[in-house]
Design a protein that fits this description.
globular, about 350 residues, ten-stranded mixed sheet, alpha/beta
Length: about 350
């Protein structure tokens, strides 16, 4: 089930709603004409489509959770994350103007780009960025970059090729944002979405614009589904970031253990045991192995652990949320089990 929209409007008492979020979307998915409630399906589109989704968060929401309707039941705004409406933009210029109008309403003029991972429907990405923006209290314009995952556990290879196909489109989206009124562009990428992101950043570096004209802000790579050797090559080509990327990994990530098996037992960055080795390539590495998770696969701790998602919010605001936990170890005062490998030194 990947329907985002209700069959009909569902009455809601304003007192039952805690927040409303306008989520902007750039996607390489083909629009779902036969099943309009899905909005965008898993088929690839040759062109990027642009939209925005008006989302509500129920007052009963608990930090780290995504309250969703079960099965094919309609979403009740008093109990569930609910998509009230979707707007489509025919031209990139229309989308760019809408982004500028939204950016202008925020004091710091920041945008947050979220790139989802493997086995995600369009709805999954919308719900997750809504939860992240809500729970981190992000004061800026949220933008979902949704590439054409077909949302099936058996579709790993299809998803990997879809991720490859989306690299130029993410680059074009980031360049569009760099031309906007935004002063800072933050990126959070999860799982296979980190592959799309790192390849795009590598392309930008090769083109001589790795920091998007000085607008690139925080880059957070959560549970990266990237071969460790490939990641090292990507970082060497990109160069030491002016602001260190943050890599969130966990040695008990069951989803990445499966990815490692599929990839011929080559370790993935997200469950790599040598965090200090990764840190030497110009990133801050936060080891979340001992942190609890609301996900049985331990694959989304960064967003579904209430303490970690609040630390993520602190990090996005000041780039100090995770750094404040430097030196903490399992059982430490933060209660997160976070072990952080501090700002790395440049490589020779």
């Amino acid at each position: 089930r990947h329907e985002l929209l209700n069959i009909s409007s569902f009455p809601a008492n304003p007192s039952d709603i805690s927040a409303e979020h306008e989520i902007f979307v750039a996607t390489t998915r083909r629009q779902s004409i036969d099943q309009p409630r899905i909005v965008f399906g898993g088929d690839r589109s040759p062109n990027v489509a642009y939209a925005s989704v008006d989302m509500t968060v129920p007052r009963i929401h608990e930090t780290g959770r995504i309250e969703r309707a079960k099965g094919r039941a309609q979403a009740d705004p008093a109990k569930h994350f609910t998509a009230r409406s979707v707007s489509f933009y025919k031209e990139p210029s229309q989308f760019a103007r809408a982004i500028d109008a939204n950016v202008a309403r925020h004091k710091d003029r920041r945008v947050l780009v979220f790139v989802h991972g493997f086995n995600n429907g369009f709805d999954d990405g919308v719900y997750r960025i809504t939860q992240i923006v809500n729970d981190t209290k992000y004061d800026g314009t949220p933008i979902l970059f949704s590439w054409a995952s077909n949302a099936r556990t058996t579709g790993y290879l299809y998803d990997k090729e879809s991720a490859n196909a989306a690299r130029d489109d993410l680059e074009a989206t980031l360049r569009m944002l760099a031309r906007s009124k935004a002063k800072s562009i933050d990126i959070i990428a999860h799982s296979m979405g980190t592959w799309v992101t790192m390849e795009t950043l590598r392309q930008l570096a090769i083109a001589g614009d790795r920091d998007l004209g000085g607008k690139l802000g925080n880059v957070v790579l959560a549970s990266p589904d990237i071969d460790v050797d490939v990641f090292k090559k990507q970082m060497l080509r990109y160069g030491k970031p002016d602001k260190p990327f943050v890599v969130l990994l966990s040695d008990d990530d069951r989803a990445l253990q499966l990815s490692t098996f599929i990839s011929g037992d080559k370790p993935r960055v997200g469950d790599y045991s040598d965090a200090a080795d990764l840190a030497s390539y110009g990133v801050i590495v936060a080891d979340l192995t001992q942190a609890s998770s609301g996900d049985r696969l331990n694959h989304a701790k960064f967003a579904d652990n209430p303490v970690l998602v609040q630390l993520l919010g602190d990090s996005l605001r000041t780039h100090a949320g995770l750094a404040a936990a430097e030196g903490s170890r399992p059982g430490g005062g933060l209660g997160t089990g976070l072990a952080l490998h501090g700002r790395p030194q440049p490589r020779d």
